[in-house]
Every structure is written in C-alpha cells, then in structure tokens.
Amino acid sequence: MRTTVQDVMTTDVAAVNEKASFHTVADLLIERGVSGVPVVDDDNRVLGVVSETDLLAKEEFKERYYGDAYRPPLRARLRHTAGSEGSGYRKAQGETAGALMTSPARTTTPDASVVLAARRMDRYGVKRLPVVDDGGRLVGIVSRRDLIKVFLRSDGDIERRIRDALPGEPGIAVSEGVVTLSGVLDEHSHAIRAVRLAENVDGVVAVHDELSWKHDDIVEMPMWGGA
After folding, report:
1. CATH number at residue 176
2. What is the total count of domains within the chain?
3. 128 and 31, same structural domain?
4. What is the DSSP letter of 59?
5. What does pLDDT average to over the chain?
6. Do 69 and 177 sit in the same domain of this protein?
7. 64: Cβ–Cβ under 8 A, 6 or more apart, which residues?
8. DSSP codes of every residue in 70-106
9. CB atoms within 10 A of CB 29
10. What is the pLDDT of residue 60?
C-alpha cells in the first residue's frame, strides 16, 4: 500500500483569514516558527498562501513610501528601473492577508500519494502544500519535512511490504532502507519486475540487484536499416 498525504500531513494547521492584518500574519509566522501559512475565506476554503517573502515586499519597496534616504537592495532598484516589479509593489501596498498572499495556492488532497505531493512541490518550487477536501476546504498541510518521514520506516516494515508484493520469489535483505534482492528466478522478466516493485515501496532508499535467472525471456528487438 502506498503512503498517502493523509498518512504524513499535519492537521494542526496555522492559517489566517483573508481579512487578517499584516501584523496578525507576521505574529503568527513568528509564533508558529513557519515561513508561510494558508489564507482562507470565512468557509475555510483555501484562497492562497502568505509567506515571509510576501511580507518583506514592504521593506523591498520602502523607498516608494519613505523617500530617498532609504536605499533598497540592488535587486529592488534594478526591478524598479527595468519596470518588472510584477506583484511585488502591489503586495508592498497590502494591509491584509488577502492583499499580501500569493494566489492561487498550490494544493493537494489527503488521498494523493506522497510521490505526487513531492513532485508538485518540486514543480512549483514550494516548501509546503495546503491539503484540501473535495470542497477546497483546508484539512491539513504537508511539508517537505513531512514527506521525509516515509524514509523513517523500519527495515522490518520495508521487508514485510516487499515480501507481500513478491511472495516466494527472491531473497530479501534490508539494512537502513537499502534493499538487496538475491537468488535465482525462473525468468529474466521476473527479476526486472522484482527490482521495480522493491524500488516503489515507500521508505526504500536504494535497491541492490543480485538476482540471476534460468531463462532469458527478454527478446531484443531487431535493428532494421540498410547498409
């Protein structure tokens, strides 16, 4: 059975209403020791995420409010000159979570696999995903740290899961998440299947293939072409 987001997510979620003030958001980030939180509406539906980066837009664009005495970072000055401020200047004017947040939020669902959640984090360059139900309401949050938990599965648990998937086939040894498959199987294709199944068990760090086979049933496709 594959590990799902529900198995590793945090349900005690720090979140803010879209009407929450700048100070409320900042206080919550500091109090909970997190770098970002989901923003929800009055029905607890996720609208976006507000992060430390969103709040720091106030500082980055401070020159607009306090005159030339303040010199913003070079990155901000270049963005001003190039006219590529994007949403940063808009966020610098924001006073509520709804105005500060990045939207739409990248979310996942409780029944999604941890593999899909990890891919989604990587694709969008985010550190966490709000977890929502079918109605888009917040039910949890999953972070990169939560996903790493799957690698804390015991060697015994990993071995049992592989044996369930490969009953009576290869020899299986597990040490600190590294799986070694050994023995003689009937077919080459069975060996390939065994390795792939072991690699797909959650918590497996690597698979060492020491399998052999009695019959090579992998037929190479002929190469066609003229001389």
Report:
1. 3.30.1340
2. 2
3. yes
4. H
5. 85
6. no
7. 89, 92
8. S---HHHHHHHHHT--TTHHHHHT--BHHHHSBSSPP
9. 19
10. 58
